[in-house]
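2.7 Reproducibility. Because tokenized structures are sensitive to small changes in the input, we list the exact sequence used for Intimal thickness related receptor IRP domain-containing protein, including any N-terminal residues retained from the expression construct. No trimming or masking was applied before prediction.
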Amino acid sequence: MDVKLLNVFVLFMCLDPEPVFGKHVRGTVDTKEDWVFLTRFCFLTDFGRLDFRFRYPKSRCCQNILLYFDDSSQWPAVYKTPDKDCYQKEAVLRPENNQVINLTTRYTWSGCVVEGDEDEEVLSCVGGRSFRSVRERWWYIALSKCGGDGLQLEYEMKLTNGQSFWTQHFSADQFGILETNITFLVIFFMVFLLSCYFAYNLKGRQLLHTTYKMFMTAAGLEVLSLLFHCVYWGLYATDGVGTGSLKLLGKFLFSVSFLVFLLMLILLGKGFTVTRARISHSGSVKLSVYMTVYTITYVVLFIYEAEFFDPGEVLYAYDSPAGYGLMGLQLVAYVWFCYAVLVSLKHYPEKQPFYVPFFTTYTLWFFAVPVMALIANFGIPRWAREKIVNGIQLGIHLYAHIVFLVITRPSAANKNFPYHVRTSQIGILLSSPKGEEGGEGFPHHAYGNRSFLGDSQPNFTELFSIQSDAVKTVEEAVSRKGDDVPRNNEHKIITTAADLTSILTRPPAPPPPTRLPSFTEYFSMQGGGAFGSKA
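Resulting structure tokens (single pass, no recycling of outputs):
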């Protein structure tokens, strides 16, 4: 991430936007319009509750609080309809459902009283409403004064669903988000710890490559993102407001984790650290340009969501020009990924045990993100969208991380393990003369288990290996009358064979000396002559 992107993020943090659907809202309205939107909330079928406090000058009487729900004949029929005036927007409400709260002392249920002296009298209204419906519904709260001289109001509203810690301040479309985030935080933390353990083993065998470090970075950022989201939703469950900067920071880390993981997949598809030690100059430039465009698009999505999303509509982040741009870039990345994998397999067919499952599983991942966005925009009910999308999105990320953790586990039984060149050998390969595949290409290698022998066990398969930078020539001169032995000046390994049977066969023991008739005992000696000796 460059400095400019960091500066944009810091600017967002300083703005600290309060969520427009945060369920303890307060503010002031002072406008010449006669109908304005205030906030929205998704209530449960039986436990929805609105508690309010309104204040405005008595001279600006009389104003109304309007309660719309998400039926096509209600809110969609009046919002952003310039052809309808204030009276027509009020006409769609059903008086029998108590959808209009008249903020006057004449309307008992509004709880309004006159406060202050005669010069500055204000109407102070304190009361509440309960919401019941056949299903979870979005309710939209508006303020109106048709045919008047504008609107002026101080308001404070508390919108709740029951009394439980897990539901009270949450809109019905957010139920389960905190529990889901906590669950995925625990799982991702375990994935990160397991990746650290695998990295420790890989480092001991000099196989801890850059791409695996990128995977660990993505997993660590995912953990931090979920941690900030859990803290935000925990505070939100307590007071109904939360700290917007924590949520923004969580989104930022989530996006960085996604970008790092995407870059890692493209690099692995191109064979980096698997079949080659470096990416070509042109490839590096293309990657830099692509990731810069992707990052800028993500920043635009953040800005668009914060500044241009209409709080009067239930929108999804990808339901925007920047969101569709991200989906297009995701498809471009997949085409690039396919081409890179095919080229790598063409030059290194022995890498099929890694690239075949790698390509198959991450093809699903590449399509999961845009498919999820399209389903969220057009297939999921708006009163359940946020919680469902949150779970699906985290599940997609967990799938991607677990698959990579499995196919790169440093186990002797893992036939999909991608790395075979040690990190200490990469410098030698980069400095070697360019062959037909370029100086960055790794030597061909068939899969085997010898890279995973325990450190305490001798690895006899490498006992007679000779490194290219440690070749020594030993010259021996053998003088034999009449024969000249040629020297090995080409640094080749010479294998000789000889029949050593005659040398290794134990010579037969000499026969015992002839027994003389006049002596009853004798000593036998070898190496010299055999003598009989009188005892």
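Residues 23-161 form a domain with the Jelly Rolls fold (CATH 2.60.120).
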